[in-house]
Specification:
- The chain has helices at 3-21, 52-64, 79-82, 147-153, 171-180, 191-199, 232-244, 246-255, 273-281, and strands at 33-37, 40-41, 45-46, 68-72, 91-96, 103-104, 109-112, 114-117, 137-141, 156-160, 186-189, 206-209, 220-227.
- It is α/β, with parallel strands linked by helices.
- The protein is elongated.
- Strands 1, 4, 5, 6, 7 and 13 form a 6-stranded mixed beta sheet that branches. Strands 10-9-11-8-12 form a 5-stranded mixed beta sheet, with helices on both faces. The chain has a two-stranded antiparallel ribbon with strand order 2-3.
- It is 33% helix and 20% strand.
């Protein structure tokens, strides 16, 4: 190869490397709202559109005045890489603040791990170091923050797998059903999951948000929407959407029995049906 040819080849390789490392600019116009989602992960999403993130996505698409489309994939390891990073979709509607693989929006809700027990149970712990948990058989998802404190306090831990293909099995639902059937005395689960599945038992189970926890476990999280890095205009639109629709978003979450915390970490108590009816009718 001649020196001139080598120089030309070097310039070509160098330019390709620069192009590969450059960020793809965000889209100026959106012909549809493309959401990264799990096809069978209630109460968050499913293909039938029954989850609260489905409801929020519909609200966003209506605001944008575009069709709603999904990129479906099990939300397990590699989910972001196989959806958002491949540009098959443009937003994940439920992502914990600080999750390093995405750019976070502002939080649109905050929730907390919650104890699920039978309605007539004498177990009413609001902290994972409550001695009443000692000797009790408590269900918990493996690799989640409550696991170590429960073992430390002396609970008999019943573990359920965290990373599964949700198209095949739903361990969280099994954990709640085990409480309902007396297999376990209770379960400590992420708040949205606890509230949703506890209310679907017959009779419904009692949920106790662990708002008084004094262990070193992190039990409450702010939940954001996740997008790709380098998309400031899209992030600004989503933040504006969250701010303008915050009350409506909380109302949707309330329909799914998600325990909500305010900015100070205090439990937000939803109005009872009578109070809501009076407010709508203007009754003093």
């Amino acid at each position: 190869m001649t020196p001139l040819a080598r120089l030309a080849l070097g310039l070509l390789v160098g330019s390709l490397a620069v192009m590969a490392g450059a960020e793809v600019p965000e889209r100026d116009a959106r012909g549809e709202l493309r959401v990264c989602a799990d096809p069978n992960n209630l109460p968050f999403t499913n293909e039938a559109g029954e989850g609260f993130e489905n409801r929020i996505a519909e609200l966003m698409a209506e605001e944008l005045d575009v069709p709603l489309a999904y990129a479906w994939a099990p939300q397990v390891m590699g989910f972001v890489r196989n959806t958002l990073e491949l540009r098959l979709c443009d937003v994940m509607i439920g992502v914990a603040a600080g999750y390093g693989f995405v750019q976070n929006t502002n939080a649109y809700y905050r929730s907390v791990y919650t104890l699920v027990v039978p309605e007539n149970s004498d177990l009413a712990a609001t902290s994972l170091d409550d001695p009443a948990l000692a000797g009790r058989r408590i269900g918990v998802m493996t690799q989640t923050p409550p696991l170590v404190p429960l073992r430390r306090v002396g609970a008999q831990v019943q573990g359920y797998p965290l990373q599964v293909d949700t198209r095949v099995r739903t361990p969280v639902r099994q954990a709640v059903e085990d409480v309902a059937n007396g297999v376990t005395d209770g379960a400590v689960l992420w708040g949205p999951l606890a509230g949703y599945y506890a209310q679907r038992q017959s009779p419904p189970l009692r949920t106790i948000p662990l708002v008084d926890d004094t262990t070193d476990a992190r039990l409450d999280y702010r939940i954001t929407m996740g997008i790709r890095q380098g998309e400031p205009q899209w992030r600004d639109w989503l933040n504006d959407f969250i701010e303008r629709h915050q009350a409506e978003l909380h109302a949707i979450l309330g329909e799914y029995h998600v325990p909500l915390l305010d900015r100070q970490g205090e439990l937000i108590t939803p109005p009872d049906d009578a109070t809501a009816s009076e407010a709508e009718e203007g009754t003093p």
